[in-house]
Structure prediction request, 132 residues.
Amino acid sequence: MFSSSFQELTVTLSRRLSSPALISSPYRRITCPALEMVLCFCGRVAIVRTAWTSLNPGRRFHACPKQGSRCGFLRWIDPPMCARSVEVIPGLLRNINKHEIANSKLMEEATKWKKYFIASWVLFLVVWLVSS
Ligand SMILES: [Zn+2]
Prediction:
């Protein structure tokens, strides 16, 4: 009695485990396409690069690792971007670049003023030591 119900349960479980429903369950094996080992046309392990063109901003792809190679291997990892992303992301990137340039100019200015500040205190100290 017990063994037959156990067998039924085992059969049910094995059917469930092999059913496609488990594949879409949250417990399925998660694979990352960027971590796959892909060989390029010249037999090298392809590397993951990120495109920053206006049509594919931030889209990753596998490419030949050899610089200047005529291999020409390119396989997209990420799906094509929607039209809205293609329209918005380049503008955001331009804004980020503009702010990074402005930030680096401000940092240069801050460094320059910090040097003037230290020089003024050294000068003040020298004048004070000489006069006393
Ligand atoms: Zn190659």
About this structure: Residues 46 and 64 are 5 Å apart (CA to CA). Residues 40-42, 44, 64, 66, 69, 71, 73 surround zinc ion (CB under 6 Å).
